[in-house]
Amino acid sequence: MRVTIARRHFYFHPAEVEQAMKGVVPEPVTGKSVDIGGVRYPIMQVGAVLTRQDRRDFNAGEVERAMRVLGFTVHPASP
Prior knowledge:
- The protein is α+β, with helices and mostly antiparallel strands.
- It has one domain (2-75).
- 34% of the residues lie in helices and 24% in strands.
- The protein has helices at 14-21, 43-51, 60-69, and strands spanning 2-5, 8-11, 33-36, 39-42, 73-75.
- The N and C termini lie far apart (32 Å).
- This is SCO5918 family protein.
- InterPro entries: SCO5918-like.
């Protein structure tokens, strides 16, 4: 499926996202997060791993939109 992050188009299948995140140690969740393969990852960490871009190049909204399109559960920031 085609998603746009940081003005670049990426083609991901949900299984590819799960494979890319497999074995990645999740950072502490301080904002929005996404469940991938039964593990909750910060949304910005997922964006950085998938796009191989610096986190300053994209925002959480772009990654959130992409993860929702791919069928992943996105959680709001905890109060």
